Amino acid sequence: MESIRSINVNYRGRFAPSPTGPLHLGSLVAAVGSYADAKFHGGKWLVRIEDVDLQRRVPGAAKQILDTLEKLGMEWDEEVIYQSRRSEAYRDALQVLNEQGLLYPCTCSRKEIADSSITGLYGYIYPGTCLNNPASPQNAHALRIQTNDEIITFHDGLKGLYTQKLCSEVGDFVLRRADGIYAYQLAVVVDDAAQNITHVVRGADLIDSTPRQIFLQQLLRYPIPHYMHLPVVTNAAGEKLSKQTNAASVNTAEALQELVDALNFLGQQPPLEILQGDIASFWRWVIQNWRVNQIPNGVV
Ligand code: GLU
Ligand code: ZN
Fold it and tell me: Which of 30, 107, 117, 224 could bridge to 124 as Cys pair (CB 3.0-4.6 Å)?
């Protein structure tokens, strides 16, 4: 059965790699999935370099990622934005949250947090030490946001309903680290809003961050995008592919094969002849034939 392409010219998707190394099959799947879904809907696809954490940034990696995307025929529709240049926007957003009385300084060390917290599914749940016993803000401090017991719910495009109660499952989380670096959760929300992103398609390793992001979007009065979390590529040991697990980088000399591998992982079934064609014909096929309902949505 042919599924009907529903064109949505307002669709704005994005790919937001952290420049910690070259693309590998895992990050390529997020790139291909977000690009295919955007183009299938007739929308725009943007790229944002998430280099907010300067310590993790690898010199040259951002350029290498962009070069690879170009060689694979994935063209972005607007100027690439770099989180390292957006501190003012993050500071302003933090100010808005601060005016709501929701931020507090935290001077706890990693060890203190480890010793005093219970571990939830997503790591330590901060016990609110510095909320109950305010730290002196003169000392180097992180800024945390106070969470509450409202249940945050969203409908994931692949996994369906997802809910989380932040205060008991995640705890008060950091928005600015003691070294002054803005946290991913804040930066991603400010930037998705600044780029008017309507559809976030990314790896399922981030699904448990989404309720935190929706919480911030609500407080900052930003629109809440649609979310779809793609299956995560793992190696034989069951680990997520990453630089830390020595994932092989995408080989642009084998561009079509790399693209086909990513597409197959997403459950799409391109005809074998597609490997005899070129990149433009590959993408023509994908944009006509993208089927979200074929993406395996197994539990991660
Ligand atoms: N920069 C994040 C990563 O590379 C992705 C963030 C996102 O898509 O929200 O894992
Ligand atoms: Zn603390």
Answer: 117
**Mean per-residue pLDDT over the chain, rounded:** 93
- 54 CB contacts (<8 Å, ≥6 apart)? 84, 181
Count of C-beta atoms within a 10 Å radius of residue 204? 20
Distant-in-sequence, close-in-space partners of 12: CB < 8 Å, separation ≥ 6: 38, 43, 44, 46, 195, 196, 197, 198, 199
pTM, 2 dp: 0.95
pLDDT at 2 over 80: no
33 lines ligand 1 (CB under 6 A): no
How much of the chain exceeds pLDDT 70, in percent?
98
**Which of 34, 37, 50 to probe ligand 1 with, by most ligand atoms within 8 A of CB?**
50
Average pLDDT over residues 109-125: 86
* Residue 129 CA, ligand 2 centroid: distance in Å: 5
199 lines ligand 1 (CB under 6 A): no
